[in-house]
Write a sequence for this structure.
């Protein structure tokens, strides 16, 4: 199993997960045209995409969902509260598959384990994904205000973590955003800061952790160099040889083996 982040940030998010036989998308926060262009950039035939999974209803995660599933003729996997909040924006979709957070299910060779995290959305889902016959386990952990006990439990054994590192606290507080928005971002239903991401990794790091991909970085309130330097400090202190990557808004990452 391998993963490529097509886009990550407040202007649109989409993650491509490739198994031995099946490719799936997590979120479609770009336009359908942009998603297809980025699939082409990373050498993936659009017809190989077999499903779209949605984390939550914010536009930077769902904007292109309706068009992409209609264009590709694939099912949309979404939890009920998120669907209820967003069905008018999705348009007509023939294949809607409702999942429930906390209840694992299979899709082709994948085991999908959705779980709830605190965010200012109807029922934000994060995902743990593994593939039949493979040791690698992928956690997609973005758009959460703080790591709950459940989150830490899920992080006990993944080999690859896509982890939110949204903002530098000082840049957020001293930046141009209005106060209400600053409050929202740093709240328990907002987004993980660089320091929160580092604290979480410091707590859960284990020998089988192979890759950390820092994601959903704010263009206004963060810098890739700051986020990377803070996390590298933790990895060095823990003497970890884990690979560290940054996901960007404007171009896909390289393929990363889970």
């Amino acid at each position: 199993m391998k993963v490529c982040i097509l886009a990550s940030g407040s202007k649109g998010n989409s993650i491509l997960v490739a198994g031995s036989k099946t490719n799936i998308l997590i979120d479609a926060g770009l336009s359908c045209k942009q998603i297809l262009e980025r699939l082409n950039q990373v050498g993936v035939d659009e017809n190989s995409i077999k499903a779209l999974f949605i984390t939550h209803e914010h536009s930077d995660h769902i904007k292109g969902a309706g068009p992409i599933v209609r264009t590709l003729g694939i099912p949309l996997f979404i939890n009920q509260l998120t669907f209820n909040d967003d069905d008018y924006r999705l348009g007509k979709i023939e294949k809607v598959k409702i999942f429930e957070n906390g209840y694992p299910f299979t899709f082709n060779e994948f085991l999908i384990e959705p779980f709830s995290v605190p965010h200012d959305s109807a029922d934000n889902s994060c995902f743990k994904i593994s593939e039949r016959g493979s040791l690698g386990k992928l956690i997609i952990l973005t758009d959460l205000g703080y790591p709950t006990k459940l989150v830490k439990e899920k992080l006990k054994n993944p080999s690859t973590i896509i982890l939110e590192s949204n903002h530098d606290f000082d840049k957020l507080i001293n930046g141009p955003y209005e106060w209400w928005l600053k409050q929202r971002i740093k709240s328990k239903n907002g987004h993980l800061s660089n320091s929160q991401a580092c604290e979480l990794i410091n707590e859960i790091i284990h020998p089988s952790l192979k890759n950390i991909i820092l994601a959903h970085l704010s263009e206004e309130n963060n810098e890739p160099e700051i986020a990377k330097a803070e996390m590298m400090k933790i990895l060095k202190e823990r003497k970890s040889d884990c690979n560290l990557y940054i996901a960007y808004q404007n171009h896909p990452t390289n393929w990363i083996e889970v």
Remarks:
- The radius of gyration is 17 Å.
- The CA atoms of residues 57 and 85 lie 7 Å apart.
- The mean pLDDT is 96.
